[in-house]
Specification:
Layout lengths: L12 E2 H7 L6 H9 L3 E3 L2 E3 L5 E2 L4 E6 L2 E7 L9 H4 L3 E3 L19
Antiparallel strand pairs: 1-4, 2-3, 2-5, 5-6, 6-7
Helix pairs in contact: 1-2
C-alpha cells in the first residue's frame, strides 16, 4: 500500500471554537451563525455546520459585514486568551481586504 502513514489521530478543532479562540469573531454564537448561514469556507468547501473541523494548515475564508477574512490556521487553541496569544493561531492572508475594495475596471467603450 502506498501513501503517507499517519500515526494517531490528526489534531482538529471545531470551526466555531477556532474562530472564537482566535478572536476572529466576538462570540462563539457569532461563529456558529456564520457557519449556519454558509458564510465560511474551509479549503474552498462551503461549511454548513459549526461542528466542521479545521486542521493546522487549512485556509479559512469568511465574511463579517463588509470585511472578507482569509486566514491560514497556524495552531489550534485550547482557550480564548489575550489578543497576542490569539494572533499566533493564524496567518492573515488578505489583510485589510473589504468587499467594498473590489472595483469594476470595466470602462464604457466610446460610441
Amino acid at each position: 500500500m502506498s501513501g503517507t502513514r499517519i500515526d494517531g489521530p490528526v489534531p482538529a478543532q471545531r470551526i466555531d471554537k477556532f474562530l472564537w479562540f482566535a478572536r476572529l469573531t466576538k462570540t462563539r454564537g457569532e461563529a456558529q451563525s456564520l457557519a449556519k448561514r454558509r458564510r465560511i469556507r474551509i479549503e474552498g468547501r462551503v461549511i454548513r455546520r459549526a461542528s466542521a473541523c479545521v486542521h493546522v494548515g487549512d485556509v479559512i475564508a469568511f465574511t463579517r459585514g463588509e470585511r472578507v477574512r482569509i486566514v491560514r490556521v497556524s495552531a489550534l487553541g485550547d482557550r480564548r486568551g489575550p489578543y497576542t496569544d490569539a494572533r499566533e493561531l493564524y496567518t492573515d492572508l488578505a489583510p485589510g481586504f473589504a468587499v467594498s475594495d473590489r472595483r469594476d475596471h470595466v470602462q464604457d467603450s466610446p460610441g
